[in-house]
Amino acid sequence: MTESAHFERAGMIRFLDEGGAPVRDLPDFARSRDELVRLYAALVRTRAFDAKAIALQRTGRLGTYGSCLGQEAIGIGVASAMTADDVLLPSFREHGGQMLRGVTMEELFLFWGGDERGNAFAHARSDFPVCIPVGTQFPHAAGVALAMQQKGERGVAVAVGGDGGTSKGDFYEAMNLAGVWKLPAVFVINNNQWAISVRRAEQTAAKTLAQKAVAAGLPGVIADGNDVIAVRDVMARSLGWARAGKGATLIECVTYRLGDHTTADDAGRYRGAEEVSPHWKAEPIVRLRSHLAAAHGWTKEEEEALLRACKAEAEEAAGNYLAIAPDAPRAMFDHLYAELPAAIASQAEEVSDG
Amino acid sequence: MAELTMVEAICAALGRALEEDPAVILFGQDIGADGGVFRATEGLTQRFGAARVRDTPLSETVIAGVAVGAAAHGLRPVAEIQFMGFLYPAIDQLVNHAARLRNRTRGRLTCPMVLRAPFGAGIKAPEHHSESMEAMLAHVPGLRVVIPSSPARAYGLLLAAIRDPDPVVFLEPNRLYRAVAEPVEDDGQALPLDTAFVLREGADLTLVTWGAMTKETVEAAGQLAVEGAAAEVIDLATLKPYDHAAVRASVEKTGRCVIVHEAPLTGGFGAEIAADLAEHCLTSLLAPVKRVTGYDTIVPYPRLEAHYLPGVPRILQAARAVLEFQ
Q1: Could you say which residues from 165 to 224 on chain B have a Cβ atom under 8 Å away from some Cβ of chain A?
Q2: Are residues A342 and A309 in the same domain?
Q3: ipTM, interface predicted TM-score of the complex
Q4: Domain end call among B135, B151, B183
Q5: What are A276-316's pLDDT values in tens digits?
Q6: Does residue B209 share a domain with residue B314?
Q7: Is the CB of B62 less than 8 angstroms away from the CB of A142?
Q8: Would the CB atoms of B69 and A139 count as touching at under 8 Å?
Q9: Same-domain check for residues B216 and B311
Q10: Per-residue pLDDT tens for B79-89?
Q11: Cα torsion at B180, B183, B188, B192 (round to 10°)?
């Protein structure tokens, strides 16, 4: 699978085993306690946001929400390697990555709570909002990368999608174009083994998802998606590869969807607890915590303080979100076009702002 | 002033846009060395380089999707779909993304792109090359749908579409590509979008049309004049959002209206115009609004396509019926 100079290893790239023990030399960034604590804090913050989002949905205060439970290391690993010059084009489970890029919890709650203003992003101004039609963000990433290439920018466009999305033509077409035009892009797959109720084996007979890169002439690599160090390392190499003008990379991050597809789904209809429970042993947060404790003396006090801080942040953000009144009804016309055409203006007048 | 056909005028507008704005980029199938299957991009890759006038792989979804991404990140892409019959894979990107990006990000990201496609029957093209599905696109909030009907209007409207801050689907009636040449000044002057053009003035009857059917409609108006009836011919030019005011004003003057389009009857854009007139101009109407359109059939293969296209006789028949209605 690993056919280019930036990936020398075959098979799945992993640095920490499920118990948090290093299985190979760690990359430089992962030798720094501060850096690892930053990554760990981002993972814990993501899970706190996720838990609060589900709680809000269950109590009727948020719309249908896609949990990233167990998959936090992908968004965090991806975004932590990116710079402000890069553009993230997320699917709907990269909440943590979006937050690391500067999207606020309030904005994410607002989006999932059914308000377009949640996509207005005060920071991360060039990042795309969550992409709901599966796989359609991959061509956008190729387009953003084309603009970067054309304008001589040093950024890289990074699209994230799911295993189901790799069955779509959009995914292949975007990779294919990126290959021909040597676009500065990275295509990341969150292979969480399930596309709602369809398991990975029913999605494709391809042995790996990374091998789909071969047909497009791109390097394809597999990372342990529950090892944030692996995701970040592979991502950093792929970004460097793209910045050096060598083109795009496909990264398959192997993980497991511990939760339902969304809050509108009941995974118990198609998979049993006996299938899910072993995967709890491999999840990313426990793994990095074990490593931090063993290698860097991460204490119980530090852990508790972090959990408290993340929970408090999520509570405060939720409170702020709930305090935001719905937009004026006329707002549905305000950004339809740069200027509202005369033909539609009379419809806007019908909508009362009272 | 040079005499240009419509396809030459389109090429001139594309060249002008590339010259005046470095953010403009063209891509599509065979638009580079080949100059496009209709030659709408003839010579442009030689003039502006293969980086700005690019051949793409054969994938319509990615052509539209790349246009969305590139537009959102600061380019002004003008993408070509080779024939409207191959535009359907691009509709996902147009409807789900191009049309919505400004709205769903509350103006943070925008999509100043143009998707060009030739369309319509009457050139003896193979199956899937002859459809007129403009009504499908005009139904989509957030899109603009623009259809030129002469070389000069193609030049001016295409420049306006490229400069517009929002996505435009620019549909080029291929039957008119080389039908006539007329003087077109390559002066960078755009024509207004969202504005209908009065091709011929008259007080007795309003004929509303667009695209290739302007030809037969203007011919029919000429024949009606011989018969003593002054028909006003309105070229809608922009279907979404369309110039209600121009159509209503004309019908308030004439009291009679026939809508002519090549696309099938049911759910066609003529229905929208007829409904608007019923809602807003009922007291001015002296006769029921009539539509002369393609049939609700699949566009036939070339041997029968002349029977599908609404020609001058059908327009005249409807116009006479509307004029005679008491």
Answers
A1: 165-166, 194
A2: no
A3: 0.96
A4: B183
A5: 999 999 999 999 999 999 999 999 999 999 999 999 999 99
A6: yes
A7: yes
A8: yes
A9: yes
A10: 999 999 999 99
A11: -60
